Amino acid sequence: MxxxxxxxxxxxxxYGLEFKDSYGFNHDWCTLIPALELAYKTSVHSSTGKxxxxxxxxWNPRLPADTLRKDLxxxxxxxxxFKIMLDxxxxxxxxxxxxxxxxxxxxxDKSHKVPDVTVGDLVVVxxxxxxxxxx
Length: 135
Fold this sequence. Notes:
Elements: H1 2-12, E1 18-20, E2 26-28, H2 29-41, H3 52-57, H4 64-67, H5 77-111
Antiparallel strand pairs: 1-2
Helix pairs in contact: 1-2, 1-5, 2-5
InterPro entries: RNaseH_sf
Protein name: Integrase catalytic domain-containing protein
GO molecular function, one term: nucleic acid binding
């Protein structure tokens, strides 16, 4: 989990201190770190089936996307622009998280070897690394 978080932050900060994204928004990545944290804490983790916010606080925070209804007619242009920016940041963070998880999976799959042992084979087990054997 720490490696995934480190990879997410590395990808998030890879553009330099100030950058203009493909949608035309200017960003200072330091100010967007809370958005990355919120996206990470509110995403469901595959190993637990729950969000990090649920474990930390016992409830999931409401996101700005939850509070803006899509059927409203008159939305202030600044709020609409802010929502569009947050949606794009959420999409980019989700893509970064998926890339980080895929990278970690590839690294593990590359180093993981399937044993040549089948059920019924006789094997020798070394007990040198077992620290919990008493007696």
